[in-house]
Amino acid sequence: MAINLLLVTLLCILISTVVSQPGSPPFPQELINAIISPTPSPSSSSIPSTPTPSIPQTPLVPALFVIGDSSVDCGNNNFLGTFARADHLPYGRDFDTHQPTGRFCNGRIPVDYLALRLGLPFVPSYLGQNGRVEGMIQGLNYASAGAGIIFTSGSELGQHVSFTQQVQQFTDTYQQFILSLGEQAAIDLISNSVLYISIGINDYIHYYLRNVSNVQNLYLPWSFNQFLASTLRQEIKNLYSINVMKVVVMGLAPIGCAPHYLSQYRMKDGQCVEEINDTVMEFNFVMRYMIEELREELPDSNIIFCDVFEGSMDIIKNSEHHGLNATADACCGLGEYKGFVMCLSPEMACSNASHHIWWDQFHPTDAVNAILADNVWNGLHTKMCYPMNLEEMVAFDS
């Protein structure tokens, strides 16, 4: 392991020398990852299954279903041939099992905390199931790291389950419930459960900001945001057609503050990349307006929008209050802000992630996920969700 770390360090020195030359473009991150990462294997037999914590209360809803990207992937990518995997330490070192499960975090992700709030067990990964209804009845997580609203977003990383494919997987689950439980019981289960959607960031990281297929020449940021929102809108309507009524739609985080971009843009003193954050804020504005329209358009639906940008910026501005004294540097990685090379080994990680906002190049720590989950649940630290929070949604429909 020490030899591998030395090789990675030497590679960083070599690459930093190359990109420091005037006019030299940033070295492609996916190429760096391909060089220093082993060829991924679809096998996941060595990955421990998601544990089930003690449930403190009677469930407030029958189930929690999750669709999204690496912000909520709990292990689906462990079963895929992709470089976007978190099936190795130090990922998971502060999780309940202290082992990697496929979560892109040192510990829990937001839906873990929300499942407990709802009185449910941690939501298991869809691809980790054996097809038996007993393992799905309290929810499934379809999220796949690298996935975006656009089908091809993140494809350079390898296999992933796209947003549209995740919606189809959810539809297949619904059909399986009908066959196993009966149609009315399946309708009751789905209509009273919560669907949590967290997706869209890869459409910027791996598509728009990289100008794939000259997309920036075809779409100004505002037009691109409208395109993404309209696509998401249609999928929510498709889900509504199979009796999905309670939906939490998460906005995008301020990726202009992520260590990867602080390193790439060579920002001074940890200042965020405003041009990236401005685009993200525009997307969240479009999404919030779209959700307001959908609430009026779809009878009996209860769809809420949670602005992760607002919640995250509040954490950054009040970092000392939360005991987070490292606001720009990732806990795990290499290079400036530890955002130049991805988190690969325990030697690359800090000793105490609870003091950091960022765990790796793009993903927050368990500490931040806990705060964001509190905000989604009841706005404990700052108001994030509109027109109501998740606790109010559950109470409203009970």
Automatic annotation (TrEMBL):
UniProt entry tagged with the keyword Hydrolase: yes
Protein name: SGNH hydrolase-type esterase domain-containing protein
Single Gene Ontology MF annotation: hydrolase activity, acting on ester bonds
Domain of life: Eukaryota
Cleaved signal peptide residues: 1-20
Biological process, per Gene Ontology: lipid catabolic process
Pfam families noted in UniProt: Lipase_GDSL
Keyword RNA-binding included in the entry's annotation: no
Family: Belongs to the 'GDSL' lipolytic enzyme family.
Species lineage: Eukaryota, Viridiplantae, Streptophyta, Embryophyta, Tracheophyta
Keywords attached to this entry: Hydrolase, Lipid degradation, Lipid metabolism, Signal
